[in-house]
Specification:
329 residues, mainly alpha
Length: 329
Amino acid sequence: MADTDPTRPDSTRADSTRAASGPVADPAVNAGPAVVADPIVVAATPVRRRPRMPRMSGLGTALALGWTIVIVLGALFVDFLPLAEARDPSLALMTPSTLAPDLMSEHPLGTDGQGLDILGGLLYGARVSLVVGIGGVLIGALVGGALGLVAGYRGGWTDRIVSIITDTLLAFPSLILLIAIVTVLDPTLPNITLALGIMVVPAYARLVRANAMSFAGREFVTAARSLGAGEIRIMLREVTPNIVQPVFSYSFMLVAVLIVAEASLSYLGLSIPRPEPTWGNMISAGQADFQRYPYLVGVPAVVLFLTVLSFNQLGEAAGRKWSPGAAKI
């Protein structure tokens, strides 16, 4: 009941009223000292985060590297492995043709229509694919890289001439250009490698040209020029080391492209002919019996797919490490 005694002072009545009605939520009266969070406690408090899917890039790169090593070693040492005959049909006359794959037999992956061992054919075909892919990339990198380096550093008419050359090569469809080259030349391993190397010259020229233009005006190039260094020295000692990494990472993907290109030519009968095995002509030779013996086409196709996928994966991993800006595109 409220205090109504008129003789008591106002403050006394207010205090008694406050005591009777309970505490009043007055921030100026009841507010205690401000509570400040301890930064050490806050930092030590675990923060709940949303679960994330595990990253598969590392595992994929490791698997790709392992498969590539197996293919490279198999191609290098196929002559010393205890494999059945895979290249000379006259030496496989006593071997049954179209044997089914049996991992515990002399022919783990079976034999083809001529009695040739499929496993041995895959390893000899890997040698052809790797020589063509790596050799073509080296030719393209040397020729296209030199053109792009000069064009990007000097600019002017040099840049225009190189651009006309690259645009002219890019104007032709790649497969038609390859067919035209291999039709004129004999379908030998060096000629196929040369033809595929010419095909990737424009790609390397454009890549190196763009990187050389970005480094041509940098401070270290200007400093070298002011110290009296010549243009060739500047291009080789100052600019080239800065564009090696993106070119190297890009080369993995171009190796995969050239392997597919060689397989396409072999499938069409325009590359190395039988009985020398390549992945493309093995697929072409087995397509007639594909319904009855699907492994004749499936086995080399799977090996081709895994090899191309592995080189692409390695190229992407190298790009993420050495060219993080380009890897996000």
